[in-house]
Write a structure and sequence with these properties.
The protein is α+β, with helices and mostly antiparallel strands. The protein has 2 domains: about 140 residues, no CATH class; about 180 residues, 2-Layer Sandwich (Alpha-Beta Plaits), CATH 3.30.70.270. About 60% of the residues lie in helices and about 10% in strands. The protein contains 9 helices and 7 strands; from the N terminus they run H-H-H-H-H-E-H-H-E-E-H-E-H-E-E-E. A hairpin with a 2-residue loop joins strand 5 and strand 6.
Amino acid sequence: MADYESRIEQQVKDKIKVLNKQRAGLYIAFIIFIGLLMFLPAAEAEGLPVRLSVYCSAILMLCGAAFVISFRDLLLLLITATGIPAVLLGLGQIRFELFLILLLTNAGTVFTASITGKAITRSFTNETEEINHLKTEATTDALTRLLNRNGLERAAGTAWAFCMRDKKKAGVILADIDYFKSYNDTLGHPEGDHILRQVADSIKSCFRRETDIIGRIGGDEFLIFLPDVDDDRVLEMAQSLSSSIINLKVKTALENNPGDFLSVSIGVATSTPQPDDLLVDLYKTVDKALYRAKRAGRNCISFHDKMIQIGVPVEESFHVGILSASTASGEAENQ
């Protein structure tokens, strides 16, 4: 929350800077023009103190009207614009009545400019928050608060480019909830949505690096893009994810389900992208790996033509068995 507020505050400050820069040239020229009008005709010294006092107030009024200035900076301008007439008053160069008029005018200018600046800042803040909200909604899955397909493609595309530039290996994990349709049919869609949120939270708990990119790309499919990893790390994280889902201890909704609890089938693929490589090709590879995991009976991980069967129950030490993908049998049921 603090990071979000800091980001909003910085964006508002940037908008104010742009606004002030856009107005600066014209108003500086205007101030110079007023100065020429006030001082060029002043050949006699008697009128110079009065002109100088009025000119200081005029600058303050123009700055307060033209720019969005912090209250502290407005006070500095007030002290400067009022200090010069105060010195001239002390030297007997201007009358007290003029000084009082300028003092009240300057104070009123600061008060008005402060209120106006706060209103503009508040307007910019609301606008920035709305824009950020719309951007978030456009790239975020409403149910799980993970990235949606659009947001995932953007984030993963950027990460893929960095891996290509730095010659780093990228890994992709594609997880599909086993027999998810049966949960919706048996328990109802609200409970199915609750299960999806539980799975999303488990995925987020497993992948905590700032560079890890997690998205929901289908009804019950989740994709995780992992930049700068090796094969062992990707496989370890896939195993951790599978174990985490089983540990949710959500009872299976099918009587003939081979497992006791909710599980996922996982496809894994890695690649060190070359200049001509496309991210979509890595997606196709991991999709094929997921399909092999489903054909092998589900609740397993397919990686590099090998099938990794997850041991159940999870109370026992986590057991991993390696099976050749060519020996995997059992056609996956349609969801």
